[in-house]
Structures are given as structure tokens and as C-alpha cells.
């Protein structure tokens, strides 16, 4: 099969096209002919070696990529819920295997998109992230209908899955924040935000509005500011660190005095521990995509250009979701 491999930790140029043997399915596994593989910031973190000491995560040489779309090529022993040729999307929890023409994964994390009429490029860009957003909003912060939600870095790959899922869960209002340079893109977005404000103008841009749930994949300054943007008994959901500010610390005294809850959600640990979260998340994700609640911009690139895709993601020149085609 065609694949891209990270031969060592380092800059994007460690990603090199290679030829590898096709994987065979073990019991409970599904092999997929990949048509689309998405690129996320987590792929860059893993490639950089940022998490090299975390047990269970990728070590070179490895094939990066945790989200694929394609058709079922072969089924392992005991897999009865899928058929060869069926259109699917899959997510891996160890962040490997996606940048290839053939992918093997556990049936528990392979979702049929058959009959939903979803473009596979949009499916891979949105469905895995929307499953995670559903698990985070329902399981981690127990969002209730009628609650308001603020999403930082609102057009980012993971963030973009939240407004559609929040709508489906009955959010009363969903607001996003983006950097000044993204305000024009925010004005054009089809994502179901009631409003998107400039994060450089927080908190003033929100005119005193506070939120029951704040989703933060950005960290740093906006995380700090979020404690003042929570409604009474509000929950701040930490899901990432796109700002790159790894040294930021939250003040526990402020959390205490605000009656706030700060919750972390990390799909890599959450989904294996709560596999039952995948099915309702997938149902909500497919509904959100079909209802046009998750229309993100997708840019296709040949698999061989994985290194360039990482470079563009890291220097913030990607306009929408970057998706590789083997
Ligand atoms: N918890 C989980 O299970 C999970 C799942 C998926 C991803 N993640 C994490 O979520 C984070 C985002 O990943 P992604 O794949 O969505 O990346 P992405 O597509 O690059 O999105 C990141 C977003 O954050 C914005 N941003 C970056 N620096 C910022 C700053 N200093 N201030 C304000 N906004 C800033 C970016 O804005 P620009 O467009 O202007 O660059 C972009 O919109 C990563 O830390 C990733 O590891 C976590």
C-alpha cells in the first residue's frame, strides 16, 4: 500500500512517502480502502515528539493520521455489523495508520456512512471530530438543553464540530471566538454560530454575556479570560492547546471563588474507556452533517504532500480542513 511514514520525530520533512505491506484484519478489526485521510494539529504534536513519553502513543517509524474515510476492504473474525464495500469513516485513538491507502482499525471505531449521502471528504473532516464533540458535551460537561455555549478558535478543525452538536443537544445560543485575522472567514462560515467575535477584543466584545459551557481548544490567554466569561456554575471544557502556550496555568482560587468547574476531555483516553460513547456520538454526528450543521471548508491534497500539509497547518495558512487523498 501507499503510505506516509514519520521515520523520526522532528519537522514536517520527516514525513516521507513509502510502500508498505497491506494490513490484514485481526479478530474484531476492519480493513478499509482509504479515499480520504484528514490532517489535524494532534498529528503535528505527535510528529514533533511532544508526547513521546506518553505510553501507548506513536513512536517512529509510524504512519500518522487518526481519521479516515473509505470503503470496507476486509472484515476480521467476529465482525458482522459491516459489509465489504460499505462506505465508512474511522477514528484511531493512538493517532496512527491514517496516512495510507489501506487502514486497519477496531470495529468499535468504524462508522458506516452508508445511506447518508455524505461526501467522504466532508465525512472525514467532520464525523470523527463531531463524535468527540458529542462525547465531550454529553459525557464530560453534561450539557443540558437550553444552555449557552462559547467555542474558542471557532473555525478550527475540532472546534468546528461543536456548534452543530451543541445545536442538536438544544443549546439556547452558540457563540464563537476567532483571531482578528479570521473575522472575514467567520463572517462567511456556514457553521451554526449565532455570532462570532474577535478574541483580541475579549471580554468587551461579548458585552457582558456569560456562558454555561465554554469549549477551549486554544489555551493561554483565552483560557485565562474564560473564567470571567462563565455563567454561575458554568463549566470550562479544556480540549486542546492550539495557542502553543504550554506553560499557562489556571488559578485554582479563581475557580473556587467563581463556583466554576474546569473539565478536561481527551478522546485518546476517553473513547477507549467509554466505548459506548461512540454510537450515540456517531448518530448525532451523521445527523449534524446531513442537516448542514457542520459545513466546514475542505481542501484536498495528494497523500504524498503530507509534509506540506503539516507545514501549512503549523504556519496557519490552511483555510479549512486539510484532507489527504491516497
Ligand atoms: N481533546 C481531544 O480529544 C481533541 C481532539 C482533536 C483535537 N484536539 C486538540 O485541539 C486543538 C486544536 O486542534 P485542531 O486540529 O482543531 O487544530 P486547528 O484546525 O489548527 O485549529 C486550531 C484553531 O485555534 C486557533 N488558534 C491558534 N492559536 C491561537 C491563539 N493564540 N489564539 C486564538 N486562537 C488560536 C486557530 O486559529 P487560526 O485559524 O487563526 O490559526 C485555529 O482556528 C489541538 O490542541 C488538538 O490537539 C483535541
TrEMBL record:
Gene Ontology cellular-component terms listed: cytosol
Leader sequence segment: none
Stored InterPro entries: ADH-like_N (IPR013154), ER (IPR020843), GroES-like_sf (IPR011032), NAD(P)-bd_dom_sf (IPR036291)
Top-level taxonomic group: Bacteria
UniProt domain Enoyl reductase (ER): residue ranges: 10-324
Pfam families: ADH_N, ADH_zinc_N_2
Claim: Kinase is one of the keywords in the record: no
Keywords, in A-Z order: NADP, Oxidoreductase
GO terms of molecular function: mRNA 3'-UTR AU-rich region binding; NADPH binding; quinone reductase (NADPH) activity
Name of the protein: NADPH2:quinone reductase
Amino acid at each position: 500500500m501507499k503510505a506516509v511514514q514519520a521515520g523520526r520525530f522532528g519537522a514536517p520533512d520527516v514525513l516521507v512517502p513509502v510502500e508498505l505491506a497491506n494490513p490484514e484484519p485481526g479478530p474484531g478489526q476492519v480493513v478499509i480502502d482509504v479515499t480520504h485521510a484528514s490532517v489535524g494539529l494532534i498529528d503535528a504534536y505527535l510528529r514533533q515528539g511532544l508526547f513521546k513519553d506518553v505510553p501507548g502513543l506513536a513512536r517512529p517509524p509510524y504512519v500518522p493520521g487518526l481519521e479516515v474515510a473509505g470503503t470496507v476492504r476486509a472484515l476480521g473474525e467476529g465482525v458482522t455489523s459491516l459489509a465489504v464495500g460499505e462506505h465508512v469513516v474511522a477514528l484511531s485513538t493512538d493517532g496512527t495508520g491514517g496516512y495510507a491507502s489501506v487502514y486497519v482499525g477496531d470495529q468499535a471505531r468504524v462508522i458506516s456512512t452508508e445511506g447518508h449521502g455524505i461526501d467522504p471528504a466532508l465525512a472525514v473532516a467532520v464525523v470523527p471530530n463531531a463524535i468527540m464533540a458529542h462525547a465531550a458535551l454529553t459525557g464530560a460537561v453534561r450539557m443540558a438543553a437550553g444552555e449557552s455555549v462559547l467555542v474558542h478558535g471557532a473555525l478550527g478543525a475540532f472546534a468546528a464540530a461543536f456548534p452543530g452538536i451543541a445545536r442538536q443537544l438544544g443549546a439556547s445560543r452558540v457563540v464563537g471566538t476567532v483571531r482578528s485575522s479570521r473575522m472575514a472567514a467567520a463572517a462567511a462560515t456556514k457553521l451554526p454560530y449565532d455570532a462570532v467575535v474577535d478574541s483580541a477584543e475579549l471580554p468587551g466584545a461579548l458585552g457582558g454575556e456569560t456562558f454555561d459551557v465554554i469549549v477551549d481548544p486554544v489555551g493561554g490567554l483565552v483560557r485565562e479570560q474564560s473564567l470571567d466569561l462563565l455563567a454561575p456554575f458554568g463549566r470550562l471544557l479544556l480540549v486542546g492547546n492550539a495557542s502553543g502556550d504550554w506553560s499557562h496555568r489556571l488559578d485554582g482560587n479563581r475557580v473556587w471563588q467563581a463556583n466554576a468547574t474546569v473539565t478536561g476531555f481527551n478522546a485518546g483516553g476517553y473513547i477507549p474507556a467509554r466505548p459506548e460513547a461512540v454510537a450515540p456520538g456517531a448518530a448525532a454526528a451523521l445527523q449534524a452533517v446531513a442537516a448542514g450543521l457542520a459545513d466546514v471548508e475542505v481542501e484536498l491534497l495528494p497523500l504524498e504532500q503530507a509534509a506540506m500539509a503539516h507545514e501549512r497547518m503549523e504556519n496557519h495558512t490552511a483555510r479549512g480542513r486539510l484532507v489527504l487523498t491516497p
